[in-house]
Amino acid sequence: MMFRMIAIVAGLGLALATSAEAQTPRKGGTIRMTAPYGSSFTSLDIHTTQRAQDEIYAKALHRSLYIWNSAEGKPVLELAKEDVVSGGGLVHTFKLRDDAYFHNGRKMTADDVIWSYNRIMDGTKAYPGARFVRVIEGAAAVEKGQAKEISGLKKIDDFTLEMKLTEKVDPGFYFFTALTSIYPADEAAKESFIQKPIGLGPFKFVEHVPGSRIVLERWDRFYKPGKPYADKVIVSIMGEAAARDVAFRNKEIDTSVLGPAQYVAYQSDADLKGTIVEVAEVFTRYMGMNPAFKPFTDKRVRQAINYAIDTDLIINKLVKGKAYRATSWLPLTSPAYDKAMKPYPYDPAKAKQLLAEAGYPSGFEFEWTTSQNESWGLPIVSAVIPMLDKVGIKAKVKQVETAVLAEVVRSGDYQAFIYSQATGPDPQAALKCFHSSTPQPACNYMNYKNADFDKLIDAAGQADDPARRTELLQKANALLYEEAPVWFFNYNKAVMAVQPWLKGVQLNATELTHQNVEDLWVDETSPAK
C-alpha cells in the first residue's frame, strides 16, 4: 500500500519505458542535459547544497547508499548488496559492494561511508544532508560538538557496516539523495577536491565552466556491467525558459524542463507534443512566514493569508494547470496524503475577520523575498499582492537570484519567502522538517516549534504498525494545515520535453530532472556524437 500512489504515477510513463526497452541500448554518444533552475551551480561539493539544480550533475558523478527506483516508486540498495535488520527494527547491517571504485581507482570501504556521514554532521558547517544522517544514533551529538564520531556507525570489516537508528524507519528514504553521497575519505579532505571532485558514479568529472556547463565522461570501472551506455554527459546551465526552448527546437539539447507557458505551447504543437513527459512530483510550493516577525507570530494572521489568496485562480491562469492544489504539506504522491482534506477556500471576508481578531484591523506591511522563477516566483508574488492588498496587507517585493534565495531560506534572513521544497517521498522525513529539533539550515526554514506536532512525529517514528504510523503522520499534517506556518500553494506537476533519440528516461516523482544517467542512452539519430 505504501507506494501505491507513487507507483500509479510512475505507471503513466509505461509506454515511454516499454518502447525504450524494446530496443537494444546503443553504446557511445553524448547525453546533453539542462540545469534549468538558475544561472549557476552552487558548488561542486554536493554535501553543501540542497538545490535540485546541483543534484542533476551529482546523479552522474556520485553515489549514495541507496538509489531511487522510479519504476518501483521507492529507494533500493545501491552501494550495498544486502541489509539485515535486527534490534527491534533499529539496527541495520549493510553488506557493502566490494566492486565500487572511486574515480581515482581506489575501492570504496566502510571507512568512506563512516567518514562521509561524520563530515555531513559537522555542526559548524550546517550541511543540509544532516537532516537525514541525524536519524543515526549519536549523529546529533557530533552535530552539537559533544562527540567526534557517530556512535551508531560501526565498521565490522571493510565491506560490512552496522548502523543503529533512533527511529523505526526505512533508511532508504534517508540515504538516496546526493546530499548523502559517499566521498573518498583520503581525498575529500583536501582543498583540491572541490575543484575536481571524485565520486563513485557512472561518469567522472572533466570540467566545470562556471555559469555555463559541467562535462563528465564515462567511468570504465563502474560497478554495473555494461553501464553507462553513453561516453559523455554535458549538463548545461539554462535558467531562461526561452533559451531552453530555442536550444530544444534547434536540437542542441536532449532535455528541457517546461514552464507553464511552454507546457501549453508544446501541447498544441504537432511536432513537439510527442516529446512531453510528465509526473506528479513530491514537491510543495509555498510562502514561508517568519514567526519572529510580529504579525506572523499569530496563527490567525497566517490563516488569514491562506483565506485571502485565490489560489485556484492563480493555478489555472498563471501556472496554466501545471500543478495540483495544495491542501497541507504532504503532496498527492505521498503515501500519507489524506484525500479527505479540503484546501483553504478563497474567503477575503474571513481573512479580514481573522486579521481584526489578531489586532490588525487595518492590515500590516511585510517584505516578501522571491526569485524570478515563473512557476513559483515573481509572477506568482505579483498576482498575490493585489489579493493581499484587498484585505489590507501590503507586500514589498525583494527579488534575489535563485542560489541566493536558497541561502536566505536556510539562514532565516527574511520576513516571508516563496519557495519549492521536496515534501517526499517519505512523509516522516518530509514532516520532520517542522520538528523543533530540526535546525533551520537543515530544512526547518520557518523555525517552526510546536510541542503537539513534535509528539505526533516522535510517536510515528517509534510505531511498529505502518497503518498506525500513517495515521499519526496524517494527524501531524492536519495540525500543520490548522497552524498554517505557510501559504499552501501547490504540488508540482513536473513536465519535461525529451528528444526522441534519448531513451530510458525515468519518471522520477522525487524530481524529474534527476535521472540515473547510467540507464540513459542515445540512438544513432542524435546530432551529438
UniProtKB/TrEMBL annotation:
Gene3D superfamilies: Dipeptide-binding Protein, Domain 1, Dipeptide-binding Protein, Domain 3, Periplasmic binding protein-like II. It comes from Bradyrhizobium japonicum. Belongs to the bacterial solute-binding protein 5 family. InterPro entries: Peptide/Ni-bd, SBP_5, SBP_5_dom. The keyword Transferase does not apply. Its main location: periplasm. Keywords: Signal. It is found in: Periplasm. Transmembrane segments: none annotated. This is Peptide/nickel transport system substrate-binding protein. The keyword Signal applies. Residues 1-22 form the signal peptide. Residues 74-438 form the Solute-binding protein family domain.
